[in-house]
Amino acid sequence: MSEAQFVKVKYRLTEQVATPGGMTAGMASDRAQRELAAHAGDAMKSIGAMIGRLETMVRDQEVSLDTVYNEASTVLDIAGLFDKRVLCDACYSLCELVDRQRAHDRLDWASIGVHVNALRLLWTKDGQDPDSLKSVVDGLWTITDRLAP
Fold it and tell me: Of 3, 23, 29, 128, which sits most exposed with the smallest number of CB within 10 A?
C-alpha cells in the first residue's frame, strides 16, 4: 500500500493578492461600488421606464401575469443592486401578488394597479421620508396577503 501524498494547490488569486501592489478584497469592493455608483442615474431612468411599461400593462390589461411578473422582477433586481430597499419590498410584494394570482387562477388588475401606482410613488420619492414610504409598502403587503399563498 502506498502512502498518501499531499499536493498543495497554488491558486492564481492567492498569488495575485500576495503580490506587492495587488488589490485587497476591501479595495476591490470599494472600486466595484464606485463603478456601480457611476451607473445609478441610468439605472433609475431604466426603472422609471419599466414602471411606465407596467402602467401600460395595467391600463391595457392585455398581457399575461407572467409578463407582469417578469417586468416587476427586473425592477426588483436593478433596485436591489442600488440598495433601494423600499422599492425592492414593493416589487417583491407585486411579484408575490402575481404569483399568488397565478396559483389561484385569478386575475385582479385592480390589485396589480395599486402596486404599480405605489411603485411610481416610491420611485418618485426615492428614499424621502422612509417611515411613510414603509407604511405604503405595508399596505401593499396587506393587499397581497388577502390571497393565501
Answer: 3
Are residues 144 and 93 in contact, defined by beta-carbon separation less than 8 angstroms?
yes
Q: How many C-beta atoms lie closer than 10 Å to residue 83's C-beta?
A: 11
Collapsed DSSP state (helix, strand, coil) of residue 149: coil
Residues of the chain with pLDDT under 50: none
Q: 122 exposed, middle or buried (CB, 10 Å; 0-12, 13-18, 19+)?
A: buried
**78: closest CA among 112, 36, 138, 130?**
36
Question: Which phi and psi angles does 78 have, rounded to 5°?
Answer: -70, -45
Give the 3-state secondary structure of residue 2.
coil
